[in-house]
Amino acid sequence: MVDHTRAMMCQLLGFIMLLPRMVLGGLWDGMQPGTVSFRQLGLCASGQPAYFGVIEPAELVQPDKMFVETMGGAICFNRASCNTHELRLWTDVDIFLSESFLRLSPPMIEFLKSGAAVPLHQLSGLVDGGIYFPSSFSAEHPWFGMRGLWAFMCTADIFVGKHNATYEPVYVPGPGPLKTCNEAISGNGANYAGCQNRTNSGMPCLPWPDTPNDYNYCRNRDGGRSRIWCRVSSPLYHDRPDYDYCDAVTETPESTTVYHHGGLNHALLLGAAKQALPNLTLISTYGSSGGGVAATAWASLIADTWTESKVVALADGALHTFPGTSLFDYFWEKAPYGAGPLGQATPQYDVTTPDFDWREVDALAKELKSHEGRVAIAYMSCIDDSVVYSERKRMALFANLTKTLQELVDPVTQHARTWRFLNNLHACSPEGSAFSFIGNCTTHHLLKSYRDLKDLQANISATEFARRVLQGLQPVPGSKATTKFWYEN
Questions:
Q1: I need a labelling partner for 356 at 20 to 30 A (CA). Which of 3, 45, 177, 244 fits?
Q2: Structural contact between residues 433 and 369, judged by C-beta atoms closer than 8 angstroms
Q3: pLDDT digits (tens, 9 = 90+) for 385-420
């Protein structure tokens, strides 16, 4: 494992030394109008190459402006979470493209990774609504005529890490009658007939529908997977049955090395963009879910990079955790890639990444104040976003925060925390620099799936709210004081 880690470090450092020739020479040099090209930069959490997209508009109408879209991204912070099937989708580009909802073929994946120019309308067809920038930019779109970057998050760290982490196994025993069970296992576990009925992340197994004699024990009966596994009720995707892996009692699980290089990758990407476009007047960023968390975290650093530019960050469906709560306290103390004690004790690369104290309720407001109105942040969300509730539950399970698990999915508690967080953000930020649009709904990615939702009092739709914010404008023309667009409660 040590030799492998050193080899990967040499590979990455060698790649960084090549950046002046490969990337920094001009991100948009030679780009064809109306296309996106994917370039390699840094590593995913798996240790495999990471990629980002460079977008050239069909017609360059706003050369002094740039947009950045950050797509999704789960986080992991221990061996159990990093080895879970659902979260592993977000730790490797090939796994995500082939096993997620996209289901792209190997030839298509290799084509996208080749750096070839892909017409934007073809990309839109492939990702099926998974992006905000459209296949064709109409004059009504906030990013009409802008160059852009599309950052796919595959580093399991919401783009703040610059570390390698080695996660040691922590055995979670199942409650089965182990004294009467044969826990012998070999190979991929096709012969396993033991009594483990919890996954290695602590999730309880569901009964097998077709072989009742196996109850809810972990199995790999046909040898079709790499390890023993079981069906679980997934809190990440609307409680539909999915699967997760298990460990037998007699197994000695290996440690897991994860390359949390999201902050490093993003810093290098923004540095390349700064060299290519040094005199921007507006940088417009959008992220959904984990990408939205990253967009808000990076807004201040983007403003520090382009010191004369206005920066706006719109987070869609990204109210996963709130500063000053037990979940944030846990990540501050335990995440080896964050701004807390573990992350500060083991920095791997000398690049600047978001480092403010997320435990402070007014952490974001302080960042906005420090830039005196040049940075604006906006949140869009359904008040009862079902996926956000599920992801809170999943994070709490992995973190073993059993005492706070119920409150993380309790609507009354979460409503109170949402309003507390947003009211504080609005009250403590410079006038006209914090906005929010909250609907009485349960869907995820409000802008992508509920665009016509309206705030009745202000008579503004989710689409119009996003359009004006991403253009660097006030949601209501001429009114800095109108910043909250909330359903009537």
A1: 45
A2: no
A3: 988 888 887 788 778 776 777 777 788 988 998 999
